[in-house]
Amino acid sequence: MEMNREPKCYVLGNGVKFHTDEIEFLSYLKIRKVERLSVFELAGLGAKGFKQWALIEPFCYKSDLFEIASYANESQIGYDALNRAWLLNTLLVVRNHTQITSIASLNRSWNDIKDLDKSIVVQATLCDYHVSMIDSSALTNPTIDQEDIRWISTYFEIANVLANKNEKFRYALNVINSWRYCVDLRSAIAIVWAALESIVDVSSEITYRLSLSLSSLLKERGESRITKFKEIKSLYTLRSKVVHGSDIKIAESEIALAGSLKLLFELITYIIESNKMVTQTDFTNAIFL
User: Fold this and answer.
1) H helical segments located in 18-141
2) Which phi and psi angles does 69 have, rounded to 5°?
3) DSSP assignment letter at 33
4) Which helix or strand (DSSP H or E) is residue 66 part of?
5) How far, in Å, CA of 169 to CA of 154, rounded?
6) What is the DSSP secondary structure assignment for residue 23, as one 8-state letter?
7) What is the DSSP letter of 67?
8) Cβ atoms 148, 256 nearer than 8 A
């Protein structure tokens, strides 16, 4: 039976640039440029029942608007169409595009809202949008390149299945997006390390064992592993100072956040590319074998 080729949803977003009008990551998942939206076009959605339209009005003047077109998919595993769009957003964040924001979902293309017929029923909802978000300039990479496209096209369904099967992996994906909505840097750093600690699962001598486990998993034996060990140990020390309320400069907190997030990105990338959730056996083998 042929799959319905009309997208199930169009998720409006901003925060990345790409060089073509459309990128097809998979046959059922595309990202397209969207023309700047006028306040009158958004108000037209309000007249059709989208009462929260005014909350996305600040984005209508952006020059880097896009929409994620998410189609029905034959796979019954994992996320539905809307959450597949969320997963694409999340994997782009993993690729260091931390400014990307999914704002609202519509059952029609955002490029077509000015021409919507009066008889067309609009189904629209806000995504994980907050008025204020933490911004880290150290994690800004606004352009999607060919390597991003290749990587996501290759690993998207692997990430989808892993998220479906493993609660810790799913929590880590949520953290990759939700840290930006914390009230301060202290809270953001805390939840990033909560995701890391959940996966590594150590309860004693945490600084040493967590640093040893992650560096052994992510780096080959030798100087690169020693450097990684020291880097993670330093990050965890910073994390402890921030979370426990020590007097620490804002610049040091930003370094701790950027470094901690990059470490979580590395771990999530390793899990996806390995196509399996890491276990204590994997950490033990990485250390001793």
Assistant:
1) 39-47, 81-94
2) -95, 115
3) E
4) strand 65-70
5) 18
6) E
7) E
8) no
Q: Which of 159, 150, 194 is nearest to 77 (CA)?
A: 159
**Cα distances (angstroms) measured from residue 202 to each of 205, 211, 242:** 8, 11, 20
Place of tokens 């880590």: 172
Say if CB 212 and CB 229 are below 8 A apart.
yes
Which residue, chain included where needed, has tokens 């021409």? Answer: 115
Q: E strands, 118-219, where?
A: 124-126
Residues in contact with 109: Cβ distance below 8 Å, sequence separation at least 6, in sequence order: 7, 10, 32, 67, 69
| Residue of 122, 259, 129 lying closest to 185 (CA atoms) | 259
Amino acid 151 reads: W
The pTM of the whole model exceeds 0.70: yes
> Which residues, 6 or more positions from 94, have their beta carbon under 8 angstroms from its beta carbon?
176, 265, 268, 269
CA 25 – CA 154 distance, rounded (Å): 9
pLDDT tens, per residue, the chain with 289 residues: 344 567 889 999 999 999 999 999 999 999 999 999 999 999 999 988 898 899 888 888 888 999 999 988 766 677 788 989 999 999 999 998 988 889 999 999 999 998 888 778 889 999 876 666 787 767 778 899 999 999 999 999 999 999 999 999 999 999 998 898 888 889 999 999 999 999 998 777 888 999 999 999 999 999 999 999 999 999 999 998 888 877 778 888 888 999 999 999 999 999 999 999 999 999 999 999 8
Residue in 55, 33, 48, 127 with CA at minimum distance from that of residue 86: 127
Strand partners, 143: 17
In angstroms, the CA 74 to CA 76 distance is 6
Q: DSSP letter at 220?
A: -
